[in-house]
Q: What sequence folds into this?
């Protein structure tokens, strides 16, 4: 039996190579992308070439046929340098590709997976202005008309929408049936009646695009149904279960980066004639941060390994996301304090990590929703 | 076209090197990599294969630790790999390495042998040249562009004040300069496949290499510490500039 954090040779090599890539290719762009609120387009083909966008996809579709855990490592390694790049890879693998693999018909997979493995970015589109946590209250409507579905409505806060070409849209085909009318569709950027609208100006992960989508009599071919009619609520909810582990990995990478910055800085910064790291008050804080990082990593790794083992992981995934996003915010906050006045400025990297951490408690199910899931699980008869 | 790439595994360019006796303290090196110029050579070989077919073989001399670099060569796209196994690599000089490499590839026909212009550790840059000399093959060092035709190789290199273009018959030994290409990052698929490919191991003691060193390493010494910098004084920028120019012209005679 191996330790949770013990990596196989493949896992270790992959993590190291993604880390090297992030250090050399991403690091120089981080502050520029953050300031501009714009993802550097030239990075995207590189992510595809390294196989980062189709980690679990079968080889026949151009993927690497690797484990879910490998995807988690990729997100963690990238997020140590920029959580905005981490989330692009996370959404592609843990939400979009996974939804296709789990629910897509063979012809849908044959058509879209090779594109998702080789160059097309995907988006997962559930939230709306008046339905966030209450996901099944969504108002986007679908109607079957002849040989197509017609979609009408708006989607909000859609990650990767600025760069994406393939969208998984959740809409209600039969509102009278309530959540049993909810259905998932595959929409391409060029479909008639589909447009990407306003891009949000955000507190953190600013390089990652978050946009509104508008569907105005958007025409979708019948074969672009993902799963079955009326079963879209399962697509929506069950896909998010594994997605949460990916967000956990993003938060672990972020917290590790903040801790590393804090350690390096406090060893080198001197006050009262001694390095900050020689003061016990500082040492105990760093130790506490290290414990936080370790526990969140263990929880994320365990949830991912459970998923790969085919075991139930829903509760562990919710706990991992809740804990790792709390830890990321706390550790990044303390890292800013370790840097003192410098930490509050954009000349040093921890200010951005603190802003980036906030999203962890919000997207892919708020922390309150994670608590509801966990409570429901532990109280079940 | 079948291409052989010489791979030297070296301490990471950022690793801290310590010396004990007249040897580099290898146990103290935390990370080993493919020598950066060799990585450029490997990338060039893989690009040639991707464009016009053939195979790429990576070869390295050393103990079992060099298998990590050969696996990375697989991950980037090499088809086969040979480890010329010796546990006393540091005892071999460039001539010994070249001899061992030639023995290890006896019976195989490579039209092109690519290598980095020099190892990033000892900076000798001799092994590929000695191999070509012993075999009477063409050799072009410091390539910045390589084009392979059916009957000849055309290689462009930097030369004093311009570029030099050489043509060579096959086999030819080419060493890669910086700027020849930008090596790729291994893909996840490549990394996973690299663990399954076999590495051919040839024991140096069975190759009939003399192993007699022609060069003896007498000692290693760290470079002298850099002298402290000097701050030019002056009331304002103009005065400082004047003082700087004066110092450059009179003290170190740079102007």
A:
């Amino acid at each position: 039996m191996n330790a949770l954090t013990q990596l196989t040779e493949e896992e270790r090599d992959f993590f190291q190579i993604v880390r090297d890539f992030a250090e050399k290719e991403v690091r120089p762009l981080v502050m520029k992308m953050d300031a501009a609120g714009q993802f550097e387009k030239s990075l995207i083909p590189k992510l595809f070439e390294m196989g980062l966008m189709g980690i679990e996809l079968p080889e026949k579709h151009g993927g690497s046929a690797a484990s879910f855990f490998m995807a988690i490592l990729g997100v963690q390694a990238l997020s140590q340098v920029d959580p905005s790049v981490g989330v692009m890879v996370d959404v592609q693998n843990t939400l979009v590709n996974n939804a296709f693999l789990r629910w897509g018909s063979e012809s849908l997979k044959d058509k879209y997976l090779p594109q998702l493995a080789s160059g097309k970015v995907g988006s997962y589109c559930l939230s709306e202005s008046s339905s966030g946590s209450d996901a099944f209250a969504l108002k986007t409507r679908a109607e079957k008309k002849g040989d197509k579905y017609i979609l009408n409505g708006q989607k909000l806060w859609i990650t990767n929408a600025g760069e994406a070409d393939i969208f998984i849209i959740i809409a209600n085909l039969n509102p009278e049936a309530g959540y049993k009318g909810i259905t998932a569709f595959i929409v391409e950027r060029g479909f008639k009646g589909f447009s990407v609208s306003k891009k949000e100006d955000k507190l953190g992960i600013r390089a990652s695009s978050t946009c509104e989508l508008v569907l105005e009599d958007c025409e979708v071919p019948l074969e672009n149904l993902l799963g079955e009619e009326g079963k879209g609520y399962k697509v929506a909810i069950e896909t998010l279960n594994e997605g949460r582990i990916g967000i956990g990995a993003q938060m672990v990478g972020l917290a590790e980066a903040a801790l590393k910055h804090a350690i390096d800085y406090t060893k080198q910064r001197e006050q009262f004639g001694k390095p900050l790291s020689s003061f016990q008050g500082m040492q105990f804080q760093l130790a506490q941060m290290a414990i936080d990082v370790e526990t969140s990593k263990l929880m994320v790794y365990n949830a991912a390994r459970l998923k790969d083992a085919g075991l139930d992981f829903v509760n562990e995934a919710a706990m991992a996301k809740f804990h790792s996003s709390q830890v990321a915010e706390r550790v990044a906050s303390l890292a800013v304090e370790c840097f003192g006045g410098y930490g509050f400025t954009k000349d040093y990297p921890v200010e951005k990590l603190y802003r980036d951490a906030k999203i962890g408690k919000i997207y892919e199910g708020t922390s309150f929703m994670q608590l509801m899931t966990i409570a429901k699980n532990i109280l079940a008869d | 076209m079948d291409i052989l790439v010489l791979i030297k595994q070296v301490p990471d360019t950022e690793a801290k090197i310590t010396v004990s006796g007249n040897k580099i303290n290898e146990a103290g090196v935390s990370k080993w990599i493919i020598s950066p110029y060799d990585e450029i050579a490997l990338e060039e070989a893989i690009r040639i294969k991707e464009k016009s077919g053939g195979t790429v073989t990576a070869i390295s001399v050393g103990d079992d630790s060099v298998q990590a670099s050969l696996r990375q060569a697989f991950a980037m796209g090499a088809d086969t790999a040979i480890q010329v196994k010796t546990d006393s690599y540091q005892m071999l000089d460039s001539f010994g390495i070249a001899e061992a490499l030639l023995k290890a590839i006896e019976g195989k026909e490579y039209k092109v042998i690519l290598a980095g212009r020099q190892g990033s550790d000892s900076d000798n840059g001799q092994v590929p040249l000695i191999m070509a000399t012993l075999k009477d093959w063409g050799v072009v060092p410091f390539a910045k562009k390589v084009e392979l035709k059916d009957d000849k190789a055309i290689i462009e290199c930097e030369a004093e004040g311009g570029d030099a273009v050489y043509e060579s018959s096959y086999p030819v030994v080419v060493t890669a300069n910086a700027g020849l290409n930008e090596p790729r990052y291994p893909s996840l698929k490549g990394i996973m496949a690299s663990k399954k490919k076999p590495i051919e191991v040839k024991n140096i003691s069975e190759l009939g290499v003399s192993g007699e060193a022609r060069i003896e390493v007498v000692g290693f010494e760290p470079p002298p510490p850099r002298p402290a910098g000097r701050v030019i004084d002056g009331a304002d920028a103009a005065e400082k500039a004047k003082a700087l120019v004066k110092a450059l012209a009179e003290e170190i005679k740079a102007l």
Q: What stands out?
A: The first strand of chain B starts at residue 2 and ends at 6. Residues 157 and 164 of chain B are 5 Å apart (CA to CA).
